């Protein structure tokens, strides 16, 4: 299995919020509710994130449903994501960047435009239920300039690297923790 396939499988798993092996719109949008709950926010506080996740489903994930059964299985996700990265890179990055910016805005509790280690860890743990120690390790790798914070550019760059790089040592590979 390639490095990119390993990362796409991990991504599939974090988006599959009910763990049934199929992505549906409710899986993807439920991530915003998980985050709201973990951060102690009212559901309407995550409306921007929910909207960007719904848009990501409508414009990217739903089109991966090759057999028309209303959901996306792991193989459809892998195959389609690889194809979309090549043919529709700008559109997919716009959707991922919108989701990332909405996600970052929610996590930026002190309003400085950056994510501290604690803010980043709270976001990944809350939204994707990743272990806190995994998030802490990922933060160390993603903090390119070593200032103890992640900028939107560092986060966006890491996400792009995560979804495109076949290089096993790329920093962005750590976005959801060690491979």
Question: What are the main properties of this structure?
Answer:
179 residues, mainly alpha, two-stranded antiparallel sheet, 8 helices, 4 strands, 4% strand
Describe this structure in words.
It is globular, with a radius of gyration of 15 Å. The mean pLDDT is 87. The protein starts with a helix and ends in a 15-residue tail after the last helix. It is mainly alpha-helical and 179 residues long. The strands form two sheets. Strands 1-2 form a two-stranded antiparallel ribbon. The chain has a two-stranded antiparallel ribbon with strand order 3-4. Helices cover 63% and strands 4% of the residues. The longest helix is centred in the middle third of the chain and has 19 residues, at 89-107.
